[in-house]
Write a structure and sequence with these properties.
The chain is 31% helix and 34% strand. With 194 residues, the chain is of the alpha+beta class. It has two domains: 11-89; 92-170, no CATH class.
Length: 194
C-alpha cells in the first residue's frame, strides 16, 4: 500500500508594492505577491480601509515584462477614468472590431482591435469562456491600416506555427524554434544543390 505524500503548501512570498495611483476615491496601491509559481496582483486602498480588488489571479510564465505591462496599463486606465479600473464600468464609446481568429490545440482565439484616445490596441481574447486576455499591441496610431493588417497576419501565423498563444511563449523558445526552422531551410537548400 502506497502512502500519499503530504501535500506541500505553496510558498508565499512577501507582498510587494508595484505602483501607486490617486483617483477621486483616494490613493491606491497595486501589490504583487508570489504564491507558488504564480504572481497575484491586487489593488488596495493606501490607508488600509476600503475594498481591495483582485487584478490578476496568476501571472505564470509571462515573466516580469508582462507584469510590468499589466501594471502600466492598469494605472494608465485609472488615470484616464479617474476611478479604480476594477470598479469602473466599461466605457461605452470604445468601438471594438474583430481583426482575426486562429485555432490551436487549446481552443479558438480572437484578435480584437479598439481605438482608445486615438491609439489602436490589439488584444488576444478567447472565443468563448473566461480565459485570460493578452495585450498584443498598443500604439499603432501613426502606422496606418497596412501596419495593423501585417501585425495581425504575423501574429496569427506565429500562433499556428507554435500551436500556442504567442504572448504565452517565452522569447527564448520563439528564437529556438526560428533557428530550427532556419536550419531546416538550409538542409533543403543543400539537398537541392546536390
Amino acid at each position: 500500500m502506497r502512502r500519499k505524500a503530504p501535500r506541500r503548501k505553496p510558498a508565499v512570498g512577501e507582498r510587494v508594492e508595484l505602483a501607486r495611483y490617486t483617483v477621486r476615491d483616494g490613493t491606491r496601491i497595486v501589490y504583487g505577491q508570489r504564491i507558488g509559481r504564480v504572481v497575484r496582483v491586487t489593488d488596495c486602498p493606501a490607508r488600509g480601509r476600503g475594498r481591495a480588488f483582485l487584478v490578476e489571479r496568476g501571472l505564470e510564465r509571462d515573466g516580469y515584462p508582462a507584469l510590468k505591462a499589466l501594471v502600466e496599463d492598469y494605472t494608465r486606465q485609472a488615470g484616464r477614468l479617474n476611478a479604480i479600473p476594477m470598479a469602473a464600468s466599461l466605457p461605452e464609446d470604445i468601438d471594438q472590431v474583430e481583426l482575426g481568429r486562429y485555432e490551436f490545440t487549446g481552443g479558438e482565439r480572437i484578435l480584437y482591435g479598439q481605438r482608445v484616445n486615438d491609439v489602436v490596441r490589439v488584444t488576444d481574447r478567447p472565443a468563448w469562456g473566461c480565459d485570460r486576455s493578452y495585450l498584443v499591441e498598443r500604439g499603432l496610431d501613426g502606422d496606418g491600416y497596412p501596419a495593423l493588417e501585417a501585425r495581425v497576419a504575423d501574429y496569427t501565423r506565429e500562433a499556428m506555427r507554435l500551436d500556442a498563444i504567442p504572448m504565452t511563449v517565452r522569447p527564448r523558445r520563439r528564437a529556438d524554434e526560428e533557428e530550427e526552422d532556419d536550419e531546416g531551410d538550409e538542409d533543403e537548400d543543400e539537398d537541392e544543390a546536390a
